[in-house]
Please model this.
Amino acid sequence: MVNTTESYAIHRDTDLDRPLRRDDFLIPADSAGKPIAYMAGNSLGLQPRSTEADIKDELDSWSHLAVRGHSHGEHPWMEFPSLLANSSAAVVGAMPHEIVMMNSLTINIHMLLASFYQPIDRRRKIVIEDYAFGSDSYAVRSHVAFRGGNPDKDVIRLKPRDGENYLRTEDIIAVLREHSSEIATVLLGAVNYYSGEFMDVAAITEVTHEIGAYAGWDLAHAAGNIPLHLHDWKVDFAAWCSYKYLNAGPGSVAGAYIHESHHKASLPRLEGWWTNKPETRFLMGPICDPLETADAWAVSNPPVLIMAPALTALRMFDQVGMHTLRARSLQLTSYMRDLITELDTDNRVSIITPADSNHHGAQLSIRVPRDPFPLIERMYSNHGVLGDARNPNIIRLAPAPMYNTFHDVWRAVSALFIELKD
Ligand SMILES: Cc1ncc(COP(=O)(O)O)c(C=O)c1O
Model:
């Protein structure tokens, strides 16, 4: 039984349990000037204090060095892609040369499907979750249509069993085996945005390979949330945004990963001048001389002004380490689950996120007995608690271990039950 008092929550925020880097973030304040309990880091992470100065540095380089900024100054812009890849490597468990930061997430999914969706004869199906994030579903369907397929037939949409809220690994594997000769590509959310389920990436990737298909993962809700081992799991490709748990700022530069085994292979790819090796890039010949790393998927020159805040944010992950973050994240989220269970004396809510710590990240998705949108608004305006809502009846609360406290979690759960009372 968890202690439900506010004083216990405050007590847990002792030096030992202190949020890892709270003081390094700008926490929005409510109308009384009190920091809000921010539970929406799964949607947009908070701003690190040093972000503004780090962007300003690049603006200064631009104003003082102009085009020479590409190769001169404290941080020559040419070096940004490799700095970002180095810092991302530990976050997603990959080698730096398997990572390229570019574009935004959905664009990266498109760029990767251009390579990893190769429909041939009967093998033309793509597998996604039935309740995948809309953008992923549209991307997948558009690729099928682009190659002359039928999106209604060639996309397999995985559904949970009747009465269940998330997918069972064994059911996913059963579908893969059932359609083994027809599946070209599997693209799943490693952490589903709606249910908060963390999938068994290693097992699903392994079976995907057994049936002769490519395994790709959308890491939007997994990167910076749960330690990943993309290289060791032999994941073929992955993409993620950096504005959620990674705190790189709205619309900041996204990530793409391609396993090194595909770097020299003759996979088709959409190309541009940044696909070309730097040594021969400016020869501008008609035929590309491609890099043999993930950078070959970068088509354009690096967007430095959004890379600067990404670098600021990723360096914090380097410093803290994913395992330390995950340990604290599990404490915060299990405290939140225990509090909800304890305070829900008349079963008004149900948590749809798996309880098994191998199958969830920071976020809990909670089914509520009323329209979740006004509920979230009232939690914000009456209690200074900011979470978010999803149709038809889900609220999502995600304590981010970099900056959230146990007291934030207590405030969020108390606000929920106060607002559900009447
Ligand atoms: C799972 C998932 N996929 C794709 C996207 C789309 O991201 P973007 O707008 O950066 O393309 C999001 C955005 O929240 C997401 O959560």
Remarks:
- The mean pLDDT is 96.
